[in-house]
Amino acid sequence: MLFNFDYFLRMFQIIAAGFKNTLSLSIVSLFFSIILGALLAGVRYYNVPVFKQISILFTSFFRSTPFIAQLFVFYYGFAQISKTIRNLPAYWAAVIVLSLSFAAYMGENFRGAITSVDKGQFEAGLSIGLTPWQTIYRIIVPQAARIAIPGMANVFANLFKSTSLAFTVGIVDMTAAAKNEVNLSFRYLEGYVALIIVYWIILALVELGQSKMEKVMNKPYIQEGK
Amino acid sequence: MDENFILRVTGLNKKFGDLEVLKDVSLTMKPGEVISIIGPSGTGKSTFLRCLNYLEKPTRGTITIDGVTVDSGHARHQDIYALRQKTAMVFQNYNLFKNKTAIQNIMEPLVKVQKVPKEKAEQEALEILKMIGLLDKRDSYPAHLSGGQQQRIGIGRAMAVKPKVMLFDEPTSSLDPELVGEVLKVIQNLANSHVTGMIIVTHEMSFARNVSDRVLFMEGGNILEQGTPEEIFNSTNPRIAKFVGACTK
After folding, report:
1. pLDDT averaged per 10 residues in sequence order, chain B, 249 residues
2. Which residue in B81, B99, B109 is closest to A142 by CB distance?
3. Looking at CA atoms only, how far is residue A105 from chain B in angstroms?
4. A226 falls in which pLDDT band (50, 70, 90)?
5. Residues B96/B150, Cβ–Cβ less than 8 Å
6. Which residues in chain B have Cβ-Cβ distances shorter than 8 Å to A124?
7. For chains A and B, what is the number of CB pairs under 8 angstroms?
8. Residue B192, class by beta-carbon neighbours within 10 Å (0-12 exposed, 13-18 middle, 19+ buried)?
9. Over the stretch A152-190, which tens digit does the pLDDT of each residue have?
10. ipTM of this predicted complex?
């Protein structure tokens, strides 16, 4: 038989063994990339000297070099010169490089979102006596968040897929689980088609959640009945 | 000099780069006084207003409002916040908080700046909504309101600040002509009550004439002339007569 359907179905169970690692890598890295991305965007938007230049350089570097090369330089390259890195579990090495790399994209997305909020909103906040900080988190951030959601979902999709490269440093994620299996069975078609379907379903669900969220968040901003 | 003043500005100067937008403007205002500022565009009227609450930092000059004095030479953050709580601004583009409903916009200065308890703030906000005739729009977001309604909420939010001086920066310039009336009516009612001082930058000449205790004519970063509406609108100064004539045609 050209396509072994039973084996194909069994693959999902095998891939499931790596699900936990894929999920935790992506969620933890998402968390750090959001925080770091917000900092990168903040120092650029508010023109904080030195930090702004660092932010520009950081963003340029991580956006313009391949993720897998970043990972190898960090995990294998730095290990030659640093004992700390040598002793670092592969999981955390992957989290660190994923977080740094995708913070660059998050930051650009956040910067666009903040810039899109009318400057008058900030002035209005100050004019009623709010402090700049109060104005930022009560007025600017909630409005920017709405703009940032589609871009964040986009970055997350790329981050989620990039966790598949973690197998190169020995982490058993979904991709590694599938790869290890088909290397023994030589049933590449069944194995990798099953893998692709799992990624697709998960990110399709994320997309669904995103559009639901957008609908709710857009409601105050869109005229009804038009 | 008259000591009963709520606002005193001395030697207010503002430069953007080499461009001197305000040239040592001075002004004294009585409590509850209604002042309109008229004059051609680009002569520093809006910049003057925006300096009064430090949305623009003056290059030179001292501002005193209700006992709070800020000198641009050594303006401290606390003083600037104190000054801003003595003033409120109504913007040309309304600038309502787009992520908040009408009543939340009005409650914001009450709850977050004056620290009024929520229930009491809501009562106050409802009173204000009643005054501006928008009680039925309490839970509407700005995007769901007309320009005129948004600007009335903008005035309501400014009222909630309980300012000593309310600043109006061309409050009707962005409005459809048919919506100008409802906004002017709200401002007129407020002006007639004289509970708060008002400085209104406007191009609505007949409105300025009706509503003001005093009218300033600004040109080239200076107050060229000031006086009662009658004095200004019947001015013998040819520059002012020409401007007023062109605007009231």
Report:
1. 83 94 96 95 94 96 96 92 96 97 97 96 97 96 96 97 97 94 95 94 94 95 95 93 86
2. B99
3. 26
4. very low
5. yes
6. 89, 91, 95-97
7. 72
8. exposed
9. 999 999 999 999 999 999 999 999 999 999 999 999 999
10. 0.93
Closest CA to B125 of B143, B141, B139: B139
Residues of chain B positioned with their CB less than 8 A from the CB of A224: 144
A162 CB burial (10 A radius; 0-12, 13-18, 19+): buried
Bridge partner list, A118? none
Task: Indicate yes or no: CB of B93 within 8 angstroms of CB of A120.
Answer: yes
B87 in contact with A, Cβ within 8 Å: yes
Task: Cite the DSSP H helix spans in chain B.
Answer: 45-52, 77-85, 102-108, 118-131, 147-160, 177-193, 205-211, 229-233, 238-248
What are B66's two structure tokens? 């209700």
Q: What's chain B's Rg over C-alpha atoms?
A: 18
Q: Suggest the residue from B77, B99, B162 to mutate for an interface test with chain A (most A CBs closer than 10 A).
A: B99
CA angle B201, B205, B206 (to 5 degrees): 125
- Residue B18's alpha-carbon distances to A119, B62, B170, B184, in angstroms, are 24, 21, 26, 37
Helix axes A188-218, A5-16, angle to 10 degrees: 60
Closest to B91 (Cβ–Cβ): which among A120, A130, A223?
A120
Which of B97, B115, B165 would best serve as a mutation to test chain A binding (most A beta carbons within 10 A)? B97
Please name the residue that has the structure tokens 């997305």: A109
Looking at the complex, does the CB of residue B185 fall below 8 Å from at least one CB of chain A?
A: no
